[in-house]
Amino acid sequence: MEQLKIPFECCASDFHEDMNVRKTPFALAKFLALGKAIVVAAKFPDALIFGADTFVMNGNVKVGKPVSHEDAIQIVSAMSGKMIRVYTGVAAVRTDLHGRVMGKKVRSVLTKLRIKKMSPEEIHRLAFQKDVLEISGAFSIEGEGGKMVEKREGDYENVIGLPMFVVREMLLDHGLHDF
User: Fold this and answer.
1) Which member of 53, 96, 131, 178 is catalytic?
2) pTM metric for this prediction
3) Fewest C-beta atoms under 10 Å: which of 14, 84, 123, 124?
4) SS3 letters for the chain?
């Protein structure tokens, strides 16, 4: 939002990110993003609320945030030498003067990353990077993780967690043009 020069306020959602919901990855990304936006909607009357959620798929395995550094080692090891898919859901929810949801738009975005075959030292370095327990897939493309990407198919900003081209389209869909 700073890139678009739009004033905003961040509000953490206490929506439970249930990665075991039986949905396709695209549908799950949208479900999680919309759930986050709706949970905070009542706090913001007459507003446009964005919710987003990003997760990784390694083959058929959904990968969320690691629960420990040991878990991060297992996650990163499993991604080594593979093509992974990064899904982000983005939801835009419009509220009325009472904070009730009056409209919503939800999209999901996919970016594929080919991860190089990593040495045990590289895996360890990634698994113990700063904030690793807060990162889906234990992998941050902005830092050390970016050095492990051999190929990218799709939007870089999606991997960071908020695909700005989708946000911009949603703002336009909601009638906001002054950015």
Assistant:
1) 53
2) 0.89
3) 14
4) CCCCCCCCCCCCCCCCCCCCCCCCHHHHHHHHHHHHHHHHHCCCCCCEEEEEEEEEEECCEEECCCCCHHHHHHHHHHHCCCEEEEEEEEEEEEECCCCCEEEEEEEEEEEEEEECCCCHHHHHHHHCCCCHHHCHHHCCCCCHHHHHEEEEECCHHHHHCCCHHHHHHHHHHCCCCCC
Q: Report the CATH fold assignment for 25-173.
A: Maf protein (3.90.950)
173 a catalytic residue: no
Domain ranges of the chain: 25-173
At 131-155, the pLDDT tens digits run: 899 888 888 888 888 999 999 999 9
